[in-house]
Design a protein that fits this description.
- The chain is an all-alpha fold and 103 residues long.
- It has one domain.
- It contains five helices and no strands.
- Helix 4 crosses helix 5.
- The longest helix has 9 residues.
- The protein is globular, with a radius of gyration of 13 Å.
- The chain starts with a helix and ends in a 13-residue tail after the last helix.
- Bound molecules: zinc ion.
- Zinc ion binds next to helix 3.
Length: 103
């Protein structure tokens, strides 16, 4: 697996660590979750980078909901301009089990 520095040099930090989905831009999945969530899903692994919604939920074992995201301008912007599933999660008041999560 490439190091963080190697990933930065290749601009790879903008791609999902697990599936290589490009996370920047309109319709992208660039967002901030609370540190507790991020540490839980990256514990003992490479944590500099991004995870798309589907891969983060896969690691977490449940769907994301609004309370999982930090109260930052980026997330407010994504309520309007994120991918369909990111907008869905940012507006969701309860989480779903992984098996119930739609893509
Ligand atoms: Zn992914």
């Amino acid at each position: 697996m490439p190091t963080t520095t190697e990933r930065l040099q290749r601009d790879e930090v903008w791609y999902c660590l697990d599936c290589d989905h490009f996370c920047l831009g309109d319709g992208g999945e660039y967002y901030m979750v609370h540190d507790a969530i991020w540490y839980r899903v990256t514990y003992g692994q490479e944590c500099e980078g991004m995870l798309c919604i589907g891969c983060l939920e896969g690691r977490l074992g449940r769907g994301l909901m609004a309370a999982d995201f930090t109260d930052c301008p980026l997330n407010h912007e994504k309520r309007e301009r994120g991918s369909a599933r990111l907008r869905d999660r940012l507006n969701r008041s309860t989480w779903k089990r992984q098996a119930e999560v739609s893509s």
